[in-house]
Amino acid sequence: MLDILFICHGNICRSPLAEFVMKDLTERQGLAGKFQIASAATSREELGNDIHPGTRRVLEREGIPFSSRQARQITKSDYEAYDYIIAMDRANLRNLERLLGGDPEGKFFLFLEFAGEHRDIADPWYTGNFDETYRDIKQGCTALLEFLLQQHKL
User: Fold this and answer.
1) Does pLDDT of 153 surpass 90?
2) Which three-class secondary structure string do you get for the chain?
3) Could you give the percent of the chain with pLDDT greater than 90?
4) Is the CB of residue 87 less than 8 Å from the CB of residue 109?
């Protein structure tokens, strides 16, 4: 089983969107049992809060199943538990390094690098553009799944 943890600042917009999009993609391909997929924050600002209403609207519109959840902050034990820790932006990567004391096993990735792009996924908390964020996350999840299928021969 491959364990994937998506990371953003507050764990209410981008990382849960990526979590549910990736779960949907793996389910549609009959691969859900080969993955554990979750999300977490680098900050403590939104702890306990459910997903943002804008994220919820996008998931509903796209017909992607989701469930109520509570934002949580990444922990040091998550580093051992997950194979891939995927950050939405460079600030998240810096915060991961600070919070977890580095990345000795090379588990940290910038999300869109799997799609061949070296840019951040904009935070819709600030931009208000949940559609743009969804398009980037869908692109990133599709590329990530393709990478994992090839890399791990699933």
Assistant:
1) no
2) CEEEEEEECCCCCHHHHHHHHHHHHHHHCCCHHHEEEEEEECCCCCCCCCCCHHHHHHHHHHCCCCCCCCCCECCHHHHHHCCEEEECCHHHHHHHHHHHCCCCCCCEEEHHHHHCCCCCCCCHHHHCCHHHHHHHHHHHHHHHHHHHHHHHCC
3) 99
4) yes
Residue pair 47/73 in contact (Cβ under 8 Å)? The answer is yes
Tens of pLDDT, residue by residue over 81-120, are 999 999 999 999 999 999 999 999 999 999 999 999 999 9
Region 2-152: CATH code: 3.40.50.2300
Give the residue numbers marked as catalytic.
8, 14, 123
Tell me the mean pLDDT in the region 20-26: 98
